[in-house]
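Continuing from the previous page of notes. For each protein in this section, the sequence appears first, followed by its structure tokens. Read the first protein now.
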Amino acid sequence: MTEHTAPRSLDLLAGKVVLVTGASRGIGAAASRLFAREGAAVVLAARSTDALDTLVTDIRSTGGTADAVALDLADPASIRAAVDHVDTLHGRLDGAFNNGAAIQQPGPLDTTSDEDVETQFAVNFRGHWIAMNAEAALMRRSGGGSIVNTSSIGSRRANPALPAYGAMKRALNSITETAAVTWAPEGIRVNGITPGGTETEMIGEWEAATPGITEQINASVPLGRMARPEEVAEVAAWLLSDRASMVTGASIPVDGGAGA
């Protein structure tokens, strides 16, 4: 894939119903477009319903199938309601890309606020825990499915700048592996991806709080640049597809070699 040319569709997700959380921007929005191009009926979930409506219109305008549902990952009832909405729309769920997240205020461990820790727990850990259980319950009805969780390169090593974020993402890696082993007999695969620096609004917010971080991230990547959201989405699409039928319990780096 070049800087300006997207790969042709392979129908990786043809006939599948896929839920995407955190779909309103960044990796989630790129994944939503890609999954639809690959043949999935996508249900897009996020707090920003205006952004979702625009994305749904864009996908439908190119012949894709898309719907939107409001979702607040800090609210367990909202998560369960979103999965119930998928059931109402399609009667089944084949894939879920749990991509929604909250970023903490960058800073060292001893200055991270209690509020930041609570938000990180609620969104980046508990929200995924609840979503995975609700998604798996719906997948069981049709004989299985695939779940992909977005973790972070910061979950695989010390994370002095984002300590609470890194801690909750490491916990997410653990429940990803546990769910993979627990649900394998039911035909439900569970994997994670651990992106490095990616050109998203989240990085822009971090740059505003810590000027120079973008240059620092680029310099740390052996390939010499951050990932584009579309590049991260490609890995999630493969994991959700039947091409990855023997892959479960894995955490796939998408970091240009930064974690090597």
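Done with the first. The second protein uses the same format. Note its length before scrolling.
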Amino acid sequence: MTENSIQSVPDTSTTAPIGLLTGKVVFITGASRGIGSAAARLFAREGAAVVLAARSAAALETVVHQVRAAGGVADAVPLDLADPESIRAAVRRVDELHGRLDGAFNNGATIQHPGPLDTTSDEDIDAQFAVNFRGHWVAMTAEAALMRRTGAGAIVNTSSIGSRRANPALPAYGAMKRALNSITETAAVTWASDRIRVNGITPGGTATEMIDAWEAATPGIIEQVNASIPLGRMAEPEEVAEVAAWLLSDRAAMVTGAMIPVDGGAGA
């Protein structure tokens, strides 16, 4: 980020909570860093008991400690989004811990090696399918099965601005995120009679470890992304998490099948 854009970033970590998710049990994938860890802290401040899932056990425990130290309720479960049985086991663990599931934020993802379509490897394509598409499909179906027992629920999937337009630098990533948009909308219609709402968010450039990895592979990409955003800067992870919190809350009771941009106007 540029110096000017850093100065303009609001401090969302001190936003006064309003009990948006009071009494809810929320499962978060990709919770060890970036948007996922910001969501863990935010959702807990808003009253949710959070169950955090990711591959990195040590990083997860750090987030759990932060939530508990602030007075929240949090537990960690191991999760490999490339392994369907690992996903189902994580959701079963939510059931063991709380006996219910009110909300799920399917935020975990993997990035491909940046490069044009004709140099994207078979391994990159397979990884993108396994994590960014099939992993969400399996997670949603397991989450919905648990939500039906209590008669309602809400699911939010993290897609990407790259799903809404051509994505020459990340073609496999963009393709699988676009497919995720489709199953998000399909799930919303399919499960509406179960009172399960399903929505997605499409963040643009966000100041996370993932964008840092992209910068390392393609120097100058952060400056390029900042320049493409009408608001003049990338989002902070907390700002993206705020939108997910609202979609998971009862305030969004009539919202389902929506893909909400969180991109500072970059997709307009």
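What the second structure shows: The mean pLDDT is 93. The chain has one domain: 20-261. We return to this in next week's lecture.
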